[in-house]
Amino acid sequence: MTxxxxxxxxxxxxxxxxxxxxxxxxxRGSRPRTKVRPEHADAVxxxxxxxxxxxxxxxxxxGEADERAITAARASELRRKSVVTxxxxxxxxxxxGDEGTLARIVRVQERSTLLRRSADDTDEVExxxxxxxxxxxxxxxxxxxxxxxxxxxxxxVAAFDAGIRPLLCMTKTDLADPAxxxxxxxxxxxxxxxxxxxxxxxxxxxxxxxxxxTVFVGHSGVGKSTLVNALVPGADRATGHxxxxxxxxxxxSSSTVSLRIEHDGRHGWAIDTPGVRSFxxxxxxxxxxxxxxxxxxxxAEDCPRGCTHLPDAPDCAINEAVxxxxxxxxxxxxxxxxxxxxxxxA
Length: 346
Prior knowledge:
- By secondary structure, the protein is an alpha/beta fold.
- It folds into three domains: 44-108, CATH 2.40.50.140; 129-272, Rossmann fold (3-Layer(aba) Sandwich); 287-345, no CATH class.
- It has helices spanning 149-162, 179-182, 202-209, 224-231, 287-291, 294-300, 317-323, 328-342, and strands at 3-4, 15-16, 44-52, 55-60, 68-74, 88-93, 103-108, 114-117, 127-131, 135-141, 165-171, 192-194, 213-218, 257-263, 266-272.
């Protein structure tokens, strides 16, 4: 080690040469962490249209002259925050939408609704399907594949729980009369569209969808993607067939994506989702189901604490009102619908 001094006095304290000082390399992570995050005051807001392998398609300035779709990645500070189709997000970076550019999603705004499902009724892990939808179009075939009441019930429960208005589209009505099946839902305020394989009521359906963000759900093979393609020319959503042996449809749509519907000078959004054969409700609060039946919910205020509102519930005010004929046949049908949905959690 080299010592040097300022004079010849041997008693002076030695000093280090600059070359003797060991400098630690600037290792990654050596900077102290801070919880202060940038405010991103210059961020712009957009809506997520779809997700593909970690890249998000986001629509910015919807309806404006400079409306554009940009590609974005999720910022590192959002690594524990999910970003799904329908989310309103704040973006920074290159938001021009030019080819080859990439913006960053730095914030997810508060969601007005969130449609979820679980793998089964015992699974507490939620699968988020879409955010900020205000309608759900349930697509079910009259035949091929056969309609499943319980699956429709589950869609309805999920919609009521999320605060989303449900609609029903019955396809392939030329193959079977849907009247008996639809009677199961007579007690609900549920708009129903009937569609044939050779004629679909596109104008009627489109009129109900413009001005809304509507998530399409349905069993594989019911014609959901065919309906989307008719409503959105050029969408080119893959369609499949029903297996003649199993009676099940083949999964075609593999991702959730938002598509613009144009009708009579207005537009809305159709959010197409992959077909599913099961719809778990492990995340649902049963109390939200009764809330969807506003007339029955008012009567339920006179029920005893903890009333299940099922047919065998003692002193149930709803059952007593219906049995007394106070609500007429419509009330009985609505009670039947409510009890069938509640039995899912019994």
